[in-house]
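Q: For a teaching handout, I want to show students what a protein-ligand complex looks like in token form. Below are the inputs, and the small molecule is DQA. Please produce the holo structure.
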Amino acid sequence: RRLLLVNGPNLNLLGTREPGIYGSDTLADVERLVTDAAAARGFEVRAMQSNHEGVIVDAIHAAREDCAGIVINPAGLSHTSVVLRDALAAVALPVAEIHISDVMQRESFRHHSYVTDVAVVHVIGEGVPGYARAVDLLVDVITGQAE
Ligand code: DQA
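A: Here is the structure, written as tokens, with DQA included.
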């Protein structure tokens, strides 16, 4: 069993990007954390990051073939992308939406996410460790321990 991990635009710069907001962990650290958290629950992870919306849409479509769920930090696309939302709704896999920062405490344009109501798990503002909690909560949903 496998999870798809998607990190959206600019998250390749984690660790150097606005460290006061996003911390000093890198994307590689995030991918390792998620891989370890998933392994502890018996899941493999396919990790991808892209700055290109269409590449992310293609990865979400491909997840239909071999993934049981999707952990996604949609980054700025959260606040702009009907396309991303439609892709997630189309594949009908359980989705965990994660944001490192507390978007509700930031600019008002970050308060709305198009992804929120197609996701079953939401982890917001818990920093990078939030990715591990998102994995746990999503696996609970997949394995029927919660909903
Ligand atoms: C983010 C929050 C978004 O508003 C922002 O555009 C990001 C990262 C977060 O993880 O806190 O790129 O998704």
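A: Two things your students might notice: Helices lie at 19-22, 27-39, 53-66, 82-91, 129-142. The chain has a mean pLDDT of 97.
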